[in-house]
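Hi,

I'm pasting everything inline rather than attaching a file, because the server keeps stripping attachments. The sequence lines come first, and each chain or strand is labelled.
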Amino acid sequence: MYGYQGKILRVDLSLRKIEEEPVDEAFLKKYVGGVGFGVRWLYDLLQGGEDPFSPKAPLIFASGPLASIRFLGSTGISITGKSPLLGLIGDTDMRGRMGGSLKGCGYDALIIEGKSDSPVYLRITEGSFQILDGRELWGKDTRQTQEIILSDPQNRNGLVTSIGVAGEKLVKYANINCELQFFAGRTGAGAVMGSKNLKAIVLGGKQKTPVSDMEKVKELVKAISTKIQTDGTCDTLSKYGTWNTTGPANLNGILPTKNFQTTTFSEISKIDGDAMLNTIYAMKRTCPGCPIGCRRVVKGETPYSFSSEFGGPQYETVASMGSLLLNGNPYAIAKANELCNLYGIDTISTGVTIAFVMECFDRGVLTEKDLGFKLKWGDPEGIFRMIELISLREGPGDLLAEGVKRASQRIGKGSEQWALHVKGMEVPMHDPRGKKGMGLAYATSFKGADHESSMHDEAYQRENALPELGFTVPMARKQFEGKAALVKSLQEYWGVMSDAAPICKFPMIPPRPLKPGLVVELLNAVTGWNFTLEDFLTTGERIFNLARMFNVREEMNRKDDLLPLRFEETLKEGGSAGESYPRKELEKLLDEYYRLRGWNPEGVPTPETLKRLGLN
Amino acid sequence: MAITVTFLSAFQDLTHGKKLFLVDEDRLSKILDGLEREVPGLKAKLFDKEGKIHPAYNVMLVRGDVLQLCLDLDCNVENGDELVIAPIISGG
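And the predicted assembly:
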């Protein structure tokens, strides 16, 4: 067996029991790793209808075979559990080193079940695993948690993955961080970890994972790296990080602004890529084995101080704490990012929730009396205060910690109209009115509105964008035609399989050089398999359908494949002026998409489809 | 003819931080020829090996409220138009 350690670790915190379990190669070939493992095990370990915070509901950390080679973020991890935000399957990926370190301890995955009766943390090394007293850590922010754990000589050189106070407080969009640098932000996995009274996991192993053909791996790594460094396709990502997207998103009229009321920001020149480089930028960092280096580290003293420990805000955070809230202050964006990471909450969901409250204020649905202070668009102090209230569930923050779906249902007065979520998960920073495929992806993703579930329309506006998957004809970002087939393929190839392998999604986006055939070659060189591209894509389809079946078991169907009402409003200005996402157009796309997927008109996979995918 | 060319999160190393250029041509190919004199090395990076606009970048024509992607070098421009050179959006 290559690319795997061949065993997983199962931890029952209720029984204080830890056991190793073998994994057989037939299973590995069927689900590959990462999200594939997570979806399969979560489906099997639950029956449907469970509370996401029930001790029965597991939290699964799964690496994939490419973690064996430390290339382009392949040492990251997928974290899967039942999402408290969605009530459906929740999966979130985190780059960094956790997947590689877990393999270094001798395990391909870690399943956490049960609930400890008091706070604990886990220490896992090669050949040993312990459940340790974590009471000293409870109530501490992520920085303090890291410091306390690493001050113990037995944890020296360990890799710390933890939650913040928000996870302890069960904020439904609490995140999980690794080394304070990498964040599994979405779907509320941090709250699931908190519900188990598990504050942190420390990994300390350096065991190698066997690789089938290391010479071939070296050859592929060299070829791909050379292309990345020389073909010009990654130059702006390397220079600006994901800040390279902010200015163009504004120009194209897809930059969420003022709670998606508009998509161009009058203060864009203060927060675009060049502005960030000229103000808060300190240095760049890379994931292990990455020649691009898209991560940005920031540092600032005035008017707001923030340290470089947490890296820096990426595009999603620049928009969610910036334009979405009419905040054109890069220092305030960086400070808000730091606060979210200290408390351990997702910056996207937090920004969308604050924007929702700001609009409630504008419309007189919430007042100063409700919040305890006046919350104005673009006010950094108000944004910081909201982050704290939500993270600690204090005052109005208690309701807002439930996410905008539940908050708007409770507040009523029509506020559901400006609660931007899909299936309960807040919408990321790409307005689908200007990129129609992204709208269908939000509506049909198994984890609600997620921008990493399917590639972005802009990459398919030229000829021969991705011939290996059959996409040769240009498709305008604003057109509906052709988007059902595009989204279906890319959900499997890019959304699922990049997390199963795993490998960074960025170099896979056309015209960048990590083409489908190369990903499969890399997988085969590591595992010794003979996967074809068709096998690879079918695996993605299998995982996607199984995730859908998990949700169907939770009584989800076509009625839930919706977009927020705001997207039916026509944009009046900017690069997507005149565009909307009418319900009837979405319904037409869904009809085609379900047919292509082999689902019935209600969005349920047919028995024939499940049989074809080996899921019957 | 007065055409504004804006570099948006792109080629700032070549332009030495300058973002706006004014040119006086009516066709994209001629505009880029002219810009090359002011920004040496631009065409080598903005064009691919086949001499087409590099797929990692977009050249967009802004005419009032209309935004149009220039797919080839024959793209016609008019007095008062703005051209924006920017990286393609690839997610966040």
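Chain B has a mean pLDDT of 92.

If the labels don't parse on your end, tell me and I'll reformat.
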